[in-house]
Each structure stands twice: as C-alpha cells, then as structure tokens.
Specification:
By secondary structure, the chain is of the alpha+beta class. About 25% of the residues lie in helices and about 10% in strands. A two-stranded antiparallel ribbon has the order 1-2. The longest helix is centred in the middle third of the chain and has 13 residues. The radius of gyration is 15 Å and the shape is globular. The termini are close together.
Length: about 90
C-alpha cells in the first residue's frame, strides 16, 4: 500500500463524527491528535487550538526558504453520521 493510501486508511479508521450533528458522537479529539502528530513527524510546526466546545483544530505550518508565495491548505476533521453505513471505520482499497 502506498504511503498516501496508508495515511487515508489510518484517517478513515478514526471515529470523528461531529457531535453537533449526532448527540454523543466522538468528535475530533482523536483525529486532531493523529493529524498533529503526523504533521510534527513531517517536520511542520504544529499548534492545536482547543475550542471551548471541546472540538480542536490543528494548524500546521511549513516555513519556506526565501520570498516565495505561501500555500494554505484548509480541511475539516469531522465526519457526518455513519448510522446507515456498514463498518464505516473499516478502510478498504
């Protein structure tokens, strides 16, 4: 399995269902920890922003060398409900 496919599979296995959509859902804490640690191993500067709601965000910065443009990637960590899915956290290729 390629490194990208392995990363995608690792992310799929983490329950990050949005508690604002499904009462009692896991939320983003575990996936935020995973993403932050992955980014740190990749050599990025990482800050985890802990929201009062308990739903953290990850900011990872790759500092460039020189006067080039800045690249910003923006994504979300939560997923929607999985109640209609069979084995939603089993990664399959």
């Amino acid at each position: 399995m390629s490194r990208v496919a392995q990363l995608a599979a690792d992310l799929v296995r983490i329950d990050s269902v949005n508690p604002g959509l499904i009462a009692g859902a896991a939320g983003e804490a575990e996936i935020a920890k995973f993403v932050a640690e992955w980014c740190e191993r990749a050599g990025l500067d990482v800050t985890v922003v802990e929201a009062a709601s308990g739903r953290p965000s990850v900011i990872a910065t790759a500092h460039g060398r020189g006067g080039g443009a800045t690249l910003l990637l923006n994504a979300h960590l939560d997923t929607v409900g999985t109640e209609a899915m069979k084995a939603p956290f089993d990664a399959r290729v």
